[in-house]
Amino acid sequence: MNSELWANIRRLHLSEHLSKSAVARELHVHRDTVRRALAAHDGPPKNGFSRPAVASKLDAFKPHLAERVAQFPDIPGTMLFREIRGQGYAGSMSILWEHLQTIRPTAPKSFLRLETLPGEFAQVDWAHCGTIAIGNRTWRLSCFLMVLSYSRMLYLEFTLSQNMEAFLAGHVHAFKFFGGVPRKINYDNLRSVVLSRVGRDIRFHPRFMDFAGYYLFEPVPCKVRAGWEKGKVESAVKFVRSSFLAGRAISTLGEINEQARLWRDVQANPRIHGATRERPIDRFVGEKAKLQPLPPKPYDTAFIDTVGVNSQALIHFDANRYTVPSAFASKSLTLKADAAQVSLFDGPRLVAVHLRSYEKHRLIEDPAHHQGLLAERKKARGARAHTDFLALAPHCAPYLAGLVAAELNLPAHLEKIMSLVHLYGKTEVAGAIDHALQFKAFGADYIHSVILQRRAARDMPEPRPILLSKKPDWNQLAVEQTDLAVYDELFEESL
Length: 495
Known about the structure:
alpha+beta, five-stranded mixed sheet, about 40% helix, elongated
């Protein structure tokens, strides 16, 4: 393995953070070659012993390769590989690659550092920053960065997604932090910015262009495989990883963002920058006045969709359930979700707001949303108690009228009387109601007192209720009382 191949492999993996597979694809070599290069820390791997040279599978094709490279110095190795494979070559691409490094004329690449005018350019990029556990789920942590090209003033924030909402929100927050908008912004070919690219023909994402038109800046995508065109933000990514993230324990998203704001204002922006030899905050004083002014209000970056409300007054969003007022059950509402909260609208009217959950399969509820359902349930129970009470016996109707005339809490008294039915049966309760009606004694306590007196006269023990604690709803079941008079009639007929 020659020195250039070894150096390229290590640079792409250790500096550019490409995976081993990605390095192999980029350099058209086998992954074993990549692994051998990364394992050799002191230089290209060499054999530990000498042995006689052996014939290479490539030897017969070297004259052809030399001729083609002499004619076309930049001819791709993949094209040469296809050519010699057609001529019978049975070796690997890595052998061809190593040989091409020895015969292809190379010239060192050099780049001219481009300095821009104040307020003219900014650069934006995402950085992958490991993972963070929130509730029952592990999320990939990302960092949004924007750097003003002239002053090197840095803005950063951590997010749980690189979706369009997070991408646009990062811009909005950065513009607010800077107090203005640069005229042009450099991007890599992110899907949030560029949908497709053929040469110079670029098709931008329509929502992003709507955003750019709102803030009046020009997006400038970098050329393919030309990361140096946004080298300032690339350097900022490395700086964040080495100076802020290294050795730092990540607990919550809110905490890491609070720490990032403190680090940004106390360490990052007040430091002497390695390229300008000035502090970004000092250079920013002159640049801020050159930025374009902010619009009157920020761009709405929230995700918006129409959602259906089920019969339980719940909506489903991002694998979670959120409550809404019961009046909107089985209707449609407009959902707006940003990084912090989930809002639901009925037309222009806000009907519900929740903190956004980043867990999965959770119920996020507001107890106030259930008040309507509870009121309806209470009303239904009252109506059922009213009907069940009148069904006990004919004389229950005048007794009900007496309860109303006494201005008692009718639902409470009816509920208590019907609970006596579950303890003593319909016959005893109906008899007690008849007795109380004769004396115009209105109220559940009178009914209960009559029952107890009658049972005591017959030396009958007080019944004990059965509490179905594991199934509390079963305590509300109405069990029809059996009329034992049928058995008396059968007994009399048998005599």
